[in-house]
């Protein structure tokens, strides 16, 4: 595939795998600050950034875009995880906090490869109809995500959207990959998705120690090839010992966790050759 996805001018299609949740109440920000890996307290109203929730051992349970509407209302656009199960797990840690966690039923995000009308970078825009507009694009590849817009399903458009996510280093983790990787192994510093300075949250000690002691040995590698959909091991072209593990794929585009010194290949995935290509920048918020 090319680095630039097909442009569907003005055409919004349903983007599967994204669910919406709301955290609302006096303690919403404090609760999220204590649970999520990003610096929620530093997020200004009307803005969003990437974030995630970790196990106590520092493994990524889920990734999401976190939006702050006002000081007592946050919105989570959850990627690929079950929203009901996620909300139920999160609710276990509410205790006496004044916060309500709810799944926003019926919210189906839609996306198009067009520049946003009002949103820009980390600033989202709210429409009069209650829908939202987010800028998920770059200078070379504009993309807009909207909620509150009726849009038909389009498999090719959905795959192009997911391929763009992977090309820019945004992992789209299947259920089997939950709890498997640390933020550094998924190279989430590229998206500014976690903080090592804000204080305690589940997994923070491991994340901070890895960061400050320089112990990250593996990170994301972008691969292209016909065999990446196997989500199996990445092997050297000659040899049987695996170098890494594919974690997500869309068409011939994939992300793998591999040693930082893995080199440029050639590699095999699913018994077929694949090539390493550079990760694209521009999705950090």
TrEMBL record:
Listed name of the protein: Folate-binding protein
Coiled-coil zones: none
GO biological process: iron-sulfur cluster assembly
């Amino acid at each position: 595939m090319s680095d630039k996805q097909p442009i569907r001018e003005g055409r919004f299609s349903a983007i599967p795998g994204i669910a919406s949740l709301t955290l609302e109440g006096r303690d919403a920000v404090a609760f999220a600050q204590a649970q999520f890996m990003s610096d929620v307290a530093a997020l200004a109203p009307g803005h969003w950034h990437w974030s995630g929730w970790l196990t106590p051992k520092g493994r990524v349970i889920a990734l999401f875009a976190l939006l702050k509407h006002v000081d007592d209302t946050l919105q989570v656009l959850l990627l690929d995880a079950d929203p009901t199960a996620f909300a139920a797990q999160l609710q276990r840690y509410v205790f006496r906090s004044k916060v309500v966690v709810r799944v926003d039923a019926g919210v189906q995000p839609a996306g198009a490869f067009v520049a946003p009308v009002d949103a820009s970078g980390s600033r989202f825009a709210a429409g009069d109809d209650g829908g939202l507009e987010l800028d998920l694009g770059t200078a070379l590849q504009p993309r807009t995500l909207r909620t509150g817009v009726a849009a038909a399903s389009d498999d090719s458009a959905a795959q192009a959207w997911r391929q763009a996510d992977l090309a820019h280093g945004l992992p789209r983790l299947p259920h089997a990959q939950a709890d498997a990787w640390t933020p550094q192994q998924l190279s989430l510093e590229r998206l500014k998705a976690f903080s090592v300075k804000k204080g305690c949250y589940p997994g923070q000690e491991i994340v901070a120690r890895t960061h400050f002691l320089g112990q990250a040995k593996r990170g994301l590698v972008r691969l292209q090839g016909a065999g990446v959909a196997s989500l199996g091991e990445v092997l050297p072209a000659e040899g049987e010992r695996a170098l890494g593990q594919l974690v997500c794929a869309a068409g011939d585009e994939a992300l793998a966790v591999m040693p930082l010194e893995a080199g440029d290949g050639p590699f095999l995935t699913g018994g077929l050759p694949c090539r390493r290509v550079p990760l694209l920048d521009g999705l950090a918020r």
